[in-house]
Amino acid sequence: MSTSDPKSPGSGTSLLTKTRPKTQRPPLYKVLLLNDDYTPMEFVVHVLERFFGINHQQAVEIMLTVHRKGLAVVGVFSFEIAETKVTQVMDYARRNQHPLQCTMEKE
Ligand code: TYC
């Protein structure tokens, strides 16, 4: 970034305009876990630990939030990472014959 120097020749005015370069930030996506009546609580806790690196105590808390409120954000990632997490969770749940649902949403 550059601002004009108020003491430099030819700029005898106190009006300064700072230029704000447009920084490009990639869009972020929330990964959501949805409640259902059948997936065992321990399985959800295990999923949170395994695919999101969340510690046991926190995983129990998040699982209970989903259980009580219907859903919770379990992480925020770039599109590709979020998509990978959703796929991993959905595949793992399916392989274990649980109806657990995981989705993503632009932040
Ligand atoms: N509601 C489930 C039960 O009572 C537990 C559960 C929690 C399921 C979170 C899904 O994302 C979920 N066994």
Please characterize this protein's 3D structure.
The protein is built from 3 helices and 3 strands. By secondary structure, the chain is an alpha+beta fold. Strands 2-1-3 form a 3-stranded antiparallel beta sheet. Helix 1 packs across helix 2. The protein is elongated. The model is unreliable at 1-12 (pLDDT under 50). The protein binds L-tyrosinamide. The site of L-tyrosinamide (TYC) has 13 residues, from strand 1, helix 1 and helix 2.
**Radius of gyration, in angstroms, nearest whole number:** 23 Å
Query: What is the CA–CA distance across the termini?
Result: 29 Å
- The structural class is alpha+beta
Helix content: 40-55%
| Ligands present | L-tyrosinamide
Average pLDDT score: 89
Strand order of the largest sheet: 2-1-3
> pLDDT under 50 segments (min length 5)?
1-12
Describe the largest sheet: 3 strands, antiparallel
- What order do the SSEs take from the amino end to the carboxyl end, as H and E? EHHEHE
Tally of strands:
3
Strand content: 15-25%
Secondary structure tally, helices = 3
Backbone shape: elongated
List the helices and strands and how they pair.
Blueprint: E1 29-34, H1 41-52, H2 56-69, E2 71-77, H3 79-95, E3 101-106
Antiparallel strand pairs: 1-2, 1-3
Bound molecules: L-tyrosinamide (TYC).
Give short descriptive properties of this protein.
107 residues, three-stranded antiparallel β-sheet, 3 helices, binds L-tyrosinamide
